[in-house]
Design brief:
Largest sheet: 9 strands, antiparallel
CATH class: Mainly Beta
Shape: globular
Radius of gyration: 20 Å
Order of helices and strands: HHEEEEHEEHHHEEE
Distance between the termini: 31 Å
Bound molecules: flavin mononucleotide
Structural class: alpha+beta
Number of helices: 6
Strand content: 25-35%
CATH superfamily: Electron Transport, Fmn-binding Protein, Chain A
CATH topology: Pnp Oxidase, Chain A
Number of strands: 9
Length: about 220
């Protein structure tokens, strides 16, 4: 078991490589893409595209991991169940945060923005690209609803496998699709020596125009 002393002593020496003001791109999506590629190429990072999505309703934040599946200047896209807890929360409050924790690279990116549903066509396209098991899984799961017995889920999956034998086209459920998070702020954190970390925040000042600010770590 990890003792409280062990936890308090957990720290590592962060590197020399930092964020140099003169080399920062004007568009944060460019820097994000470089960091995502670095994370994907790092053999210790698992699921480089995993991000923690936080929503807030009635002053109560809640967080969960989702996978980034597309990135453009319009924002960060993930897919989910449109009747899930997160979906209900987004329909009440579209302000969300995304956090990419790339610890082996001593990096973190935090995005603030607003979530909205992507078009049915875009969701159809992505759904069609998913493996059959994931497609049937999306149909089988009433995500975030109470499940009294796992057998019910497995039976539902088996029934749907019979309904759509291998080779048949499986339609996208209406209750499943994508969200895009349009960023208003993207903050890059790079670990540096002696806790003198780099913290660079891009704040949207217009359509694809960004202000760049540095903050104390
Ligand atoms: C690595 C990882 C990736 C995940 N990716 C997704 C995803 O892309 N979409 C999704 O709906 N849930 C994903 N989940 C499950 C969510 O974290 C969460 O349990 C689920 O979406 C229900 O959340 P909610 O009840 O807050 O709506 C993932 C979980 C993990 C650990």
């Amino acid at each position: 078991m990890t003792s409280r002393e062990d936890i308090a002593a957990m720290r590592r020496q962060y590197g020399e490589v930092g964020l140099v003001d003169a080399q920062l791109p004007k568009n944060p999506v460019e820097l994000f893409n470089t960091w995502l590629s670095d994370a994907a190429a790092n053999e210790v990072v698992v699921e480089a595209n995993a991000m923690v999505l936080s929503t807030v309703v009635d002053n109560q934040p809640s967080s969960r991991t989702v996978l980034l599946k597309d990135l453009t200047n319009e924002g960060f896209t993930f897919f989910s169940n449109y009747e899930s807890r997160k979906a209900k929360q987004i329909s009440e409050n579209k302000n969300v945060s995304l956090l990419f924790p790339w610890y082996p690279l001593e990096r973190q990116v935090i995005i603030l923005g607003t979530a909205s549903k992507i078009s049915d066509e875009e969701s159809d396209k992505y759904f069609a690209s998913r493996p059959r098991g994931s497609q049937i899984g999306a149909w089988a799961s009433m995500q975030s609803s109470e499940l009294s017995d796992r057998v019910l889920l497995e039976n539902k999956f088996a029934q749907l496998e019979e309904k759509w034998p291998v080779g048949t086209q499986i339609p996208r459920p209406e209750f499943w699709g994508g969200y895009v998070v349009l960023p208003t702020s993207i903050e890059f954190w790079q670990g540096r020596y002696s806790r003198l970390h780099d913290r660079i925040r891009y704040l949207r000042s217009g359509n694809n125009e960004w202000q760049i600010k540095r903050f104390y770590p």
